[in-house]
Amino acid sequence: MTSRRARAPSSRAAHPEPAAEDGKASTVAKHSLVIAGHSTSVSLERIFWEALKAASEEEGCSLAALVARIDAGRGRANLSSALRVYAMERALGRKSG
Known about the structure:
The protein has helices at 11-14, 46-59, 63-72, 79-91; strands at residues 28-35, 38-45.
């Protein structure tokens, strides 16, 4: 008799994204941006988009320009992760403009 391993549920099935219309800070929102001449989409929780938008306004640049700058300095990190880390470091006062 051959044993079969049970398949783990996919992360999408286990953790579905809430509807974008619910307006909660934890709701994931996808933004399309042009970075270094290439279109890309980034999914982040709304609270991070709000923090990044505030940072771009404080620094006098567009959101796309801020994301491009973070992208250029992220090394091997995933772009979404780099954006979250940037927003948190800024919120904690660890990163200046």
